[in-house]
Design goal:
273 residues; alpha+beta; 10 helices; 48% helix
Length: 273
C-alpha cells in the first residue's frame, strides 16, 4: 500500500453526475467530499470516521453506504475499500443484492468468479473483452499485490468513462484522499450543515417568489383557500378510488387530503392577516 501503510480508506464511485449524487449523498449524514470522476461519473470521498475511530471495519461501512445510496437512486454505486489485510469492491444497484470481490494484501484472490461476471453484467461491460480482463484479476498472480488489483479494476472501468481525479488513488489513506479532493476545483462538501444552508436559501427564494403566498406556513389567505380546495378535490377522489378499487385515484386523493389538511392546520395555528 502507498504512503500511510496499512491505513484503511474507501471511495464511492457513482454512475451519475455530481448534481444528481449530492441530494442523495446528504441523506447518509456523513461528512464527504464530492467531485466529478468522468463525464457520467462522480466520486464521494468519505472522511473515514467510522473506521478511523475503530467503530466498524471499512468494508462493512463502505458496503452499507453504497447500498443506501443505490436504493435511493436509479444509478449504480461502486464502493472501493482497503485496509491492512484486504482490499475489495462492492457494487450496489437498486434493491438487488450487492455483489463484491476481495483480495488479500499480497493480491491473492479470495472471491468467487461468478461475482466478477455479475459485476460486469450489472455495469454493462463488454461480455468478452472486459470479462476476460476481470477474470485475470481473479486469477493468481504473484506479481500483482492488492493495490495493483484495485488499479486494474479502475483501468477496466475507464472503458465506461470512469476517470478518477489526480490524487484519488485506491490504497491511499482517508486523510490523503481528503487533501487531494479539497484541492480539486469542482469539489463540494457533503454534510448536514451544507444541506441546511442550501435548503434555507432555496426556501427563501421560493417564499419571495410568486408561489410564496400559497405555501402552507405563510399564513396567507391564498394558502388557506388552496388548502381548502385540495381537501374538496381530494375527498371525492378517495371515495371513487375506494369504490372502484383504483390505487392511483386513492393515492392521489389521499395526497391532496393530507396536503390540504396540513395547510388548514397552519391556518388555524398562525394568526390571520
Amino acid at each position: 500500500m502507498p504512503s500511510e501503510e496499512n491505513a484503511p480508506g474507501a471511495l464511492l464511485v457513482c454512475r451519475a453526475p455530481a448534481d444528481s449524487v449530492a441530494p442523495v449523498a446528504h441523506l447518509l449524514n456523513e461528512p464527504m467530499l464530492l467531485t466529478a470522476a468522468g463525464q457520467e461519473w462522480s466520486v464521494l470521498v468519505p472522511e473515514g470516521r467510522p473506521w478511523s475511530d475503530g467503530a466498524e471495519p471499512v468494508d462493512r461501512v463502505a458496503t452499507g453506504w453504497a447500498t443506501a445510496l443505490a436504493v435511493g437512486a436509479p444509478w449504480p454505486v461502486l464502493a472501493l475499500w482497503w485496509d491492512a489485510d484486504r482490499v475489495g469492491y462492492t457494487l450496489a444497484v437498486g434493491f438487488r443484492r450487492p455483489v463484491g470481490y476481495v483480495w488479500l494484501t499480497d493480491g491473492t484472490p479470495v472471491g468467487e468468479d461468478e461475482a466478477m461476471r455479475t459485476f460486469a453484467a450489472r455495469l454493462g461491460l463488454d461480455p468478452v473483452l472486459d470479462v476476460q480482463s476481470l477474470d485475470r484479476l481473479a486469477a493468481p498472480d504473484s506479481e500483482a499485490d492488492a493495490r495493483a488489483r484495485l488499479l486494474g479494476l479502475v483501468a477496466i472501468l475507464s472503458r465506461t468513462g470512469v476517470a478518477l481525479p489526480a490524487g484519488l488513488t485506491p490504497g491511499a489513506s482517508s486523510a490523503e484522499l481528503s487533501v487531494a479532493a479539497r484541492a480539486l476545483p469542482d469539489v463540494r462538501q457533503i454534510d448536514w450543515a451544507t444541506l441546511r444552508r442550501t435548503a434555507r436559501t432555496e426556501l427563501e427564494a421560493v417564499q419571495e417568489g410568486p408561489l410564496g403566498p400559497y405555501l402552507p406556513w405563510s399564513g396567507r389567505p391564498e394558502a388557506r383557500l388552496l388548502a381548502l380546495a385540495e381537501v374538496v378535490a381530494g375527498l371525492p377522489l378517495v371515495v371513487h378510488g375506494l369504490r372502484r378499487r383504483r390505487a392511483g385515484l386513492l393515492s392521489a386523493g389521499a395526497l391532496l387530503l393530507a396536503h390540504g389538511a396540513l395547510g388548514l392546520s397552519y391556518g388555524l395555528t398562525l394568526p390571520r392577516d
